[in-house]
Amino acid sequence: MPHRVANFLRTSTHTLETQLAAGFKRQKSPPQTPRHSRSASPSYASSINEEAEESGVMTPERHESSSEGHHHHRLSLNGLGQLIRGTKDLHIHQHSNQAATLNLKVESPPLVLYGDASTSTGALFSGSMHMELKEDVPIESFTGTLRIHVTQKRPFTAHCHDCAHQYTELQSWSFLKAPLVLTKGSHYFPFSFLLGGHLPATMDGPLVNIAYEFHAEATPAQGHGPSIKFDKNIEVKRSQPEAEVPHHSIRVFPPIDVKSSAHYPQVIHPLGVNTLSLRLDGIAKSNPTCGTVEFWKLKKLSWKLEEKSKVIAPACEKHAPKDETTSDDASPAKKGLERTDSRIIGEQTYFKGWKSNYSSADDATVEMEFDWGLSKKLESDLAKSKKHRRYVCDTKCADGTEVTHQLEIEMVVSQEYAPAKKLDMVTQTGVGRIMRMHFNVILTEPSGLGISWDNEAPPIYSMVPASPPAYCGSEGSTDDLDLSNIETLLGGSSPTSPILRSPPTSYAEASGSV
């Protein structure tokens, strides 16, 4: 069996060398015939000779043909390498000699949608396209497009481009109404667009990626080079207002009747530090029958910030299920699949750090304050993965995309009892309880010093009066004026005629009196 494998491999090598040598001989057409004729079908002996030739040991009869075949093979590779290098040089030459370049200059502040999707007035996106020309170039068309690119990371059908990518065009601009020859130098083409408040913010989560793509393309006239393209992603954020006072939540845990009271900020920021104040009441109860006092002592407290994502992965036209229902009562087939995911973006565990008071059964309390938010360690771990961002702000879109955050607090308490007159003689009962609380929080970007575009808009033309305001002076003559202190008011100088002159009531009267 091994000699058959060796024979097969050597036969394949012999066939390749035979074809190369035969092709080279046909091109050169040597006048003399070879001394030894070669059989068309390979043999074990010929394969041994080929192995000797490949290893560098050549016989006198095979030396000429082997060198010729090897030389022919090397020439073909050199020609291919020259072709590849020539193509690269041509590409670099065309890129370096490009006569026009495009760049985007954004003039508006960072795009921030203030408020939720139902109350936000949107964000104003304005700027100008900068075209730098090294020479006069005739431009046939110059257009720009702003669109939303949604990438499904768990699409309806795997390995389908249309199921994984959805595009929504928001606005398009035509910077040139007709073909025009642009002269050498810089040219600016302004544009503006109002992003609706219902649009989603830029996000990169475990299920979906939403990006705003700006694309511009300038097409020169035929014979003046290829089209000039420019692409850039525009970041859009959403900021929701904060409450002036912390949110207050009260929870009672039956059957032990322990009451928890928590004060926490309901709107948090990714880089901020948040403080939660917790108080437990009703953790002690007296038992007059046995003459003891029962305590619920806190042994462990942990919190975690959970992010939940939900999207509807739509199906393309090719993979969309056919609606075969004919009755009115039957529901049509769904055009997408619901995808859900959850991950922990912050967590911490405490075994101490709270203040407890068990001096009496009526005033027994436990108080604690701790900071919570996005964990630094989890941020670094998610940043190293480079799969998606370490967090996604709260989002709710019309297409079914929704991202929410929830703070979960878990407390472990154990039951103990002590005599009513000797509270320091504590005995454990071995009974424990796990108490959990869930708080809905909103993770959003900070607003900073920015305000909504409609609050910083300049006055419109209807607010500007037609003429300057009229002077509201007395209509009496100048003889009735008291000019006794005029020199004192003017610093000792005599009154001049313009002061005694009545003010003009219009621009025409003022121009006529000059």
Automatic annotation (TrEMBL):
Start-end of Polar residues biased regions: 490-505
Alphabetized InterPro entries for the sequence: Arrestin-like_C (IPR014752), Arrestin_domain-protein (IPR050357), LDB19_N (IPR024391)
Transmembrane segments: none
One Gene Ontology biological process: ubiquitin-dependent endocytosis
GO cellular component, one term: plasma membrane
Region (Disordered): 22-73, 317-339, 490-514
Listed GO MF terms: protein-macromolecule adaptor activity; ubiquitin protein ligase binding
Composition skew (Basic and acidic residues), residue ranges: 60-69
Name of the protein in its database record: Arrestin
Source organism of the structure: Pyricularia oryzae (strain 70-15 / ATCC MYA-4617 / FGSC 8958) (Rice blast fungus)
Pfam family, one: LDB19
